[in-house]
Structure prediction request, 188 residues.
Amino acid sequence: MTQTESEVRRRRSLNTTSRDMLISMTVIVGIVVALLLLVPRPNQIPERSIDVAAAAGAAQQELGFAPADPHLSSDWTARTADVQRATDDLPTWHLTYTTPSGHYAGIQQAAKPTAAWENNQVTGGNPAQGTRVIGSTTWIVRSRLDRGITSLVLREPAAGAGHPAITTVVTGTATDVELNQLALAVAP
Prediction:
């Protein structure tokens, strides 16, 4: 009879261990589900508010010229506005937007830029494909059609002492209408 009692105890011990493990797993899953329900998760990345005018004012001394501060409608969202050191360590005004259609559009400006700087700004130095008159200003078109990128280049000559030659590149995947709108907003 002692063997039977020990077998019964062993079986109870095995059943209890399985049952305890099931209870523990249920408690752990319950805690995880509760945490998932309690922790807030945003549906989208919050947008930063960028004051382009303030950034342009702060960048002017470093650049040596008044950088572009386009006045666009409120459905254009500024994403970056800063000075970057690009090719040839040239201080470059870098301004990017999300357009009303949700595409990328950007502006790069530098004083006395080199050909290497301009080639870098137009995605790989693709050659000029002609010109486009926007407002009363003629822009050089240097696009990468294989990537869906259009670049418009404006080379302004020096305008006397204290006003160096400035090159402005308007570029992006935005529609031609949106890129024209941005170019019009930054043209002198």
